[in-house]
């Protein structure tokens, strides 16, 4: 077929929606596209909402075969250990006794990029955990940020369409820095809070191992007496919460687009098993309305200072996958995979996810039997009257495949709650059928302001720079102006400098001054350990042999030093001792390490010294710890950084140098270099 005929064929299928009235795919005009149909403004979403189901079904089936969102992911196996019995709050068996262990499978992911995109994109990170409990699989499907962009699931296709590459040119990949995303945020201002998290350092984590995880929604615990409590889930990394800087992220994407997955794989492979503690915020039902926000609003969080996080267990990832496709790609998560003692609330985003996830798996994994894939199979046996379908692996025997029956003595039969049968929480529900949102969902800015005020000065500056970059990439000035005007409702200290940076009118009215803070929201208040921090040890032939002892001591302190030189292979110290160069300046760039130690060597030539200078300069500009032997300290003088914070000189007299180095490496970054530069 010629190109002209092909173009003519395609022409009849083109459509321009501009200026048209919205309809369903059947042509029915739609009067409301903002809210799902509910039983009362705070009630559950109704199954008869054909518009929501059509919209969500179409969205769920838009990509084949990779996930519509969270396509770029990596996973590992591990176990969860319960610290104490939670029977007072929940009858979930895996939380029933101290020391009880449950196998888990965890998948981390970026949200917006395709499966082949780089991992250091500015993005939300998925944090999905499958617990293989004795009562069936329980999936805690969350993110590394505690809130979400939208309040109602009917808007989920819209926010993802907006953040994905723009449809007319498929640009940009794995980036929110474009017109359609920020146009969505400006015109759907419930997104203001989560978008600010996206602008924070949380969006460019140092490692999966250094991310918090959140269940996002308010769920329910239910105990054996049927008493319910509201609950928010938190994963707290033992290594603390740490990020990279934006320039570093961009360079890492070029040097190693698999940086996060490689970091996780190598940590587990070397026995440095990542750990997170599971925490819960529990709210008695009678306190549902005591807050100045709605617990059912997924764009809101509960400040930890108001409801402390109770630590109830620890998760350890201790085994890499054997086959990425069979496990990581075929794993099917679903927030509706629950066990007795864990139930839902009427959060309208959660309600929609309960439909969407199963629908998505049907298209991705070929049919209704995705639960039979090895990675998805529960560890406990399962029995029901479901048969046939794509990918069926179970060979059911017998003639009965229905309930009720007499031919098989009416088996399999439902289990009573006392026998472990799941029983939905008996919440009273009443209200008129409406497409509306509760008035208690209408505050879109106060928690964004809380988050802003809780950030350190450095984190605030990073957010200003991030928003300046994101909006600076938007072509439409009207979009840039709308977003700046919106963020004036969060704080003028954010909106005004961004406005000046991107050439729009500077808002004069908005939120100013100090107010309530939540210190737990700042990464600067996170725990800091030297464990698994990677150190580049720069060496040339004839380096001082004392460096080898320092490297050994670094390892004892929990650091991971690696020799970096001009060529791979063995290299000799001045006394003839050989070590192995593991990375070169080409393959071991400074952005791939957390700290730098310059050892040099007798045969270091001008070219080597030039590379070392550039290496140290880049690490210093990324606020990292840099150190050198006394003999190599001239490099620090040449760069005029000897007296800056986070610069250490090894005089070979201090036997505690490696320990001092580890203490400084644990600080992560030395942000006060900004002040010194000023």
From TrEMBL:
<feature type="compositionally biased region" description="Polar residues">
    <location>
        <begin position="519"/>
        <end position="528"/>
    </location>
</feature>
<comment type="function">
    <text>Decomposes hydrogen peroxide into water and oxygen; serves to protect cells from the toxic effects of hydrogen peroxide.</text>
</comment>
<feature type="domain" description="Catalase core">
    <location>
        <begin position="23"/>
        <end position="411"/>
    </location>
</feature>
<dbReference type="InterPro" id="IPR041399">
    <property type="entry name" value="Catalase_large_C"/>
</dbReference>
<keyword id="KW-0479">Metal-binding</keyword>
<feature type="compositionally biased region" description="Basic and acidic residues">
    <location>
        <begin position="1"/>
        <end position="20"/>
    </location>
</feature>
<dbReference type="Pfam" id="PF06628">
    <property type="entry name" value="Catalase-rel"/>
</dbReference>
<keyword id="KW-0408">Iron</keyword>
<dbReference type="InterPro" id="IPR024712">
    <property type="entry name" value="Catalase_clade2"/>
</dbReference>
<protein>
    <recommendedName>
        <fullName>Catalase</fullName>
        <ecNumber>1.11.1.6</ecNumber>
    </recommendedName>
</protein>
<keyword id="KW-0560">Oxidoreductase</keyword>
<feature type="region of interest" description="Disordered">
    <location>
        <begin position="506"/>
        <end position="528"/>
    </location>
</feature>
<comment type="similarity">
    <text>Belongs to the catalase family. HPII subfamily.</text>
</comment>
<dbReference type="InterPro" id="IPR043156">
    <property type="entry name" value="Catalase_clade2_helical"/>
</dbReference>
<dbReference type="InterPro" id="IPR024708">
    <property type="entry name" value="Catalase_AS"/>
</dbReference>
<dbReference type="Pfam" id="PF18011">
    <property type="entry name" value="Catalase_C"/>
</dbReference>
<dbReference type="InterPro" id="IPR018028">
    <property type="entry name" value="Catalase"/>
</dbReference>
<dbReference type="InterPro" id="IPR002226">
    <property type="entry name" value="Catalase_haem_BS"/>
</dbReference>
<keyword id="KW-0575">Peroxidase</keyword>
<feature type="region of interest" description="Disordered">
    <location>
        <begin position="1"/>
        <end position="25"/>
    </location>
</feature>
<dbReference type="InterPro" id="IPR011614">
    <property type="entry name" value="Catalase_core"/>
</dbReference>
<keyword id="KW-0349">Heme</keyword>
<keyword id="KW-0376">Hydrogen peroxide</keyword>
<dbReference type="InterPro" id="IPR029062">
    <property type="entry name" value="Class_I_gatase-like"/>
</dbReference>
<dbReference type="InterPro" id="IPR020835">
    <property type="entry name" value="Catalase_sf"/>
</dbReference>
<dbReference type="Pfam" id="PF00199">
    <property type="entry name" value="Catalase"/>
</dbReference>
<dbReference type="GO" id="GO:0004096">
    <property type="term" value="F:catalase activity"/>
</dbReference>
<dbReference type="InterPro" id="IPR010582">
    <property type="entry name" value="Catalase_immune_responsive"/>
</dbReference>
